[in-house]
Amino acid sequence: MTTQDDRGAVVLARAHGLFNIAGGLWPLLHLTSFEKVYGPKTDRWLQRTVAGLLVGIGWTQVRAARTPDGVRQARRLGMATAATLLTTDLLCVPTGRIRPTYLLDAAAEALWLRAWRGGTVRPEPRAGRTGSVLAAAAALAAGCATGGLLASRVLRRPPEQEVSELTRARYLRHPAAR
Question: Reduced to 3 states, what is the DSSP secondary structure of residue 102?
Answer without folding.
Answer: helix
